């Protein structure tokens, strides 16, 4: 949600280096003033407050990154201030994966407090870590394949490539009218991990694997991919 206050600070950010230089202040990264973090934090806080009322408004600022550079001072500082970030990826969009969310740079600082037994399911955290790790390795293998060719890849490498394609097409991608629950996503995650033999899933404890990994699947686990 973006309040009128958001519209007020939009012109401020691009001209901040010029204003700082005119004041003869010591520049920080890429010419932006050193107090940029403080200014952004105070602006975001103001945008989420309502006078005379308790609580706060959840704000979702939408940032465009110059040259898709996430290390640019503004998106970088915003990532430190907010409770998380969702990275919309141009390459995924070009491959018609919707929504085109790149899970590797995306994050949530509140996730650990909101998942697990009693809130979602006890395997949620371990499953998330394993999916993330397998996808990251798959991206590395994809980059290596572009250099050395598929013939030079090992059997394990090919499994990671297979997982990467399934993860993007079945887990990240959702139809515009699809309403997938958290528990359906967890079951889908296990289906994807069954691409690998059990011994390759090193981020999940044995007791969790015993309950959720078996290939015959659990009741209501959905169809095979």
TrEMBL record:
Keyword rRNA-binding among UniProt keywords: no
Organism of provenance: Gallus gallus
Residue ranges occupied by any ATP synthase A/B type C-terminal domain in the UniProt entry: 114-213
Domain (ATPase F1/V1/A1 complex alpha/beta subunit nucleotide-binding) ranges: 17-108
SUPFAM superfamilies: P-loop containing nucleoside triphosphate hydrolases
The organism's taxonomic lineage, starting at the top: Eukaryota, Metazoa, Chordata, Craniata, Vertebrata
Family: Belongs to the ATPase alpha/beta chains family.
InterPro entries noted in UniProt: ATP-synt_VA_C, ATPase_a/bsu_AS, ATPase_F1/V1/A1_a/bsu_nucl-bd, P-loop_NTPase, V-ATPase_su_B/beta
Keyword line: Hydrogen ion transport, Ion transport, Transport
One GO term (biological process): proton transmembrane transport
Name listed for the protein in its UniProt record: ATPase F1/V1/A1 complex alpha/beta subunit nucleotide-binding domain-containing protein
GO molecular function annotation: ATP binding
Signal sequence residues: none
């Amino acid at each position: 949600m973006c309040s009128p206050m958001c519209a007020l600070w939009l012109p401020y950010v691009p001209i901040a280096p010029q204003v700082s230089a005119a004041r003869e202040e010591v520049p920080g990264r890429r010419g932006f003033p050193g107090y940029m973090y403080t200014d952004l934090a105070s602006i975001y806080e103001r945008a989420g407050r309502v006078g005379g009322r308790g609580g706060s408004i959840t704000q979702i600022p939408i940032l465009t990154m110059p040259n898709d550079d996430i290390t640019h001072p503004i998106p970088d500082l915003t990532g430190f201030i907010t409770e998380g970030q969702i990275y919309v990826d141009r390459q995924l969009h070009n491959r018609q994966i919707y929504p085109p969310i790149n899970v590797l740079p995306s994050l949530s600082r509140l996730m650990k407090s909101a998942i697990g037994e009693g809130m979602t399911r006890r395997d949620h955290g371990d499953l998330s870590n394993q999916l993330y790790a397998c996808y990251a390795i798959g991206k590395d293998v994809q980059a290596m394949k572009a250099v050395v060719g598929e013939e030079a890849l090992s059997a394990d490498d090919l499994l990671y490539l297979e997982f990467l394609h399934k993860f993007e097409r079945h887990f990240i991608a959702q139809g515009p009218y699809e309403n997938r629950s958290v528990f359906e996503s967890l079951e889908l995650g296990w289906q994807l991990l069954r691409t690998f033999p059990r011994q390759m899933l090193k981020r999940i404890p044995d007791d969790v694997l015993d309950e959720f990994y078996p290939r015959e699947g659990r009741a209501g686990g959905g169809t095979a991919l």
